[in-house]
Amino acid sequence: MTQTDSAPTAAPRSPRQAGRVHRAWFVAAVAFVTIIGSAAFASLPGLLIEPLHEEFDWSRGTIGFAVSVNLALYGLTAPFAAALMDRFGIRRVVAPALLVIAGGSVATVWMTAAWQLVLFWGVLVGLGSGSMALAFAATVTNRWFTARRGLVTGILTAAGASGQLVFLPLLSWLVEEHGWRPAAVTVSLTALTVVPFVWLLLRDHPADVGLAPYGGTYAPKPAPVPGAARRAVTVLGKAARTGPFWLLAGTFAICGASTNGLVKTHFVPAAHDHGMPVTAAAGLLAVIGVFDVVGTVASGWFTDRFEARRLLAVYYALRGVSLLFLPMLLAPAVHPPMIFFIVFYGLDWVATVPPTIALCREHYGEDGAVVFGWVLASHQVGAAAVAFLGGLARDVFGSYDVVWYASGALCAMAALMSMVIRRRPAPAATGVPAGA
User: Where do the coiled-coil regions begin and end (predicted)?
Assistant: First the structure.
């Protein structure tokens, strides 16, 4: 498009010409803080299972069902949230989502029945968190960055791990010393604290401040896209007719099953079954968060330089091997082999996200963020299934061993599926291809 002479932003400054840090990095910083804050409510479910079981005598399967509703809605909301961000802007979607999370979390303090846990934590927190899921990171990255997209995706993905590092020890201490209710209130207050950062500091598009995306050329802000829900469903319909979508959705479902659904939800109660204190088990999850930051940022760097599908195959294969060894490592005390598992698994935790986003962008162009929203939905459906089935398996078999072994086998399948994804010839076409 040719710019008119009268346009006030006719000569936007590139980051090199401006001689200062590009505004895109400040937007990424605000997104980073927002995602860190969201890690508070992502860290709590695994800490609730035993306290709720003891106080209300609800089965682990029942509690796992509420967690599974949360995880499923987290994923199923994401593609609609991505489309809503195109229609109304990032701030007008993320800020209300944080308020919904705060309300749902604090409402659990007064619950007396299992259905209320499903409603407050499962439905409300699930809908709110899904509106600011990884599709939020993908939208920020796609709009504000042309260069360094892989690196920025890795950094924003690692923000969740950073938040886990901050909140897991605090929340586990609160649950152990003061009960689960103060922990739920803490999650609510954290969500409220993030709202001003989003509303006052986040900007929807580089053209809002007269800039080009980092590493790119200036383009006017696109008009709002009407019919957000219709667009999300339309994009799904087109993408569903292509092979790469189903392979990406399948591998990411296994990713969710083997991380959020399995380890984040069931590692603490599984370790407690072997005599490990809850605070020690939660501390190990926090250490996973430390190495997740390193692994995810490194994965973003690798994604800028190596073929994404090969990276995915390596990540899933290594994760599967580590999960097969975990049942032999659980013990009352933390020992060196367990530390090795935590480090190894942490490096791989969400390293799959940058190459998955890159493949969505490569195959589906401008619709890549919405397509990734649907791929993320499959991630959370996989997580939800294992969150429920893991608790059910614990009730039936008296241990989690079968769940660890099954997840290791699924990761091996995901590694094979990743290699089947065909590479799209450059340059990538805009929009969803009809026969990819």
Answer: none
* Burial of 175 per CB tally in 10 Å (0-12, 13-18, 19+): buried
Q: At what angle do helices 278-303 and 149-178 cross, to 10 degrees?
A: 180
What does the alpha-carbon distance between residue 379 and residue 323 come to, in Å, rounded to a whole number?
18
Could you tell me which of 268, 270, 257 has the C-alpha nearest to residue 406? 257
Environment class of 116 (CB within 10 Å of its CB; exposed 0-12, middle 13-18, buried 19+): middle
| Cut 0.90: pTM above it | no
Residue 87 lies in a domain: yes
CA distances 79 to 38, 207, 213, 307, Å, are: 18, 24, 23, 25
Classify residue 135: in a domain, yes or no. yes
Give the count of domains, the chain: 1
Give me the pLDDT at residue 409, please. Answer: 94
What's the pLDDT tens digit per position in 78-137? 777 777 887 788 888 888 988 998 888 889 889 988 899 889 888 888 888 877 766 677
- Whether 175 is covered by a domain: the verdict is yes
What one-letter code names the amino acid at 258? S
**What are the pLDDT digits (tens) for 145-176?**
888 887 887 788 777 666 766 777 788 888 88
Contacts 24+ apart (CB under 8 A), 179-182: 179/51, 180/47, 180/48, 180/51, 180/52, 180/55, 181/108, 181/109
Asked if the structure places residue 425 within a domain, the reply is no
User: Rounded to the nearest 5 degrees, what angle is found at the Cα of 43, between the Cα atoms of 42 and 48?
Assistant: 110
The CATH number that applies at residue 414 is: 1.20.1250.20
Q: Are 323 and 411 in contact (CB under 8 A)?
A: yes
The token pair at 3 is 């710019």
Residue-wise pLDDT for 385-421, tens only, equals: 888 888 888 888 888 889 899 999 999 999 999 999 8
**Inter-residue contact 317 to 412 (CB < 8 Å):** yes
pLDDT digits (tens, 9 = 90+) for 257-270: 998 888 888 888 88
- Over residues 213-256, the pLDDT tens digits come to 888 788 787 777 667 678 778 888 999 999 899 999 999 999 98
The whole-number pLDDT of residue 125 equals: 86
Kindly report the number of other CB atoms within 10 A of residue 177's CB atom.
Answer: 9
H helix intervals, 264-400? 265-273, 278-303, 308-325, 336-348, 353-364, 368-397
d(CA 84, CA 47): 32
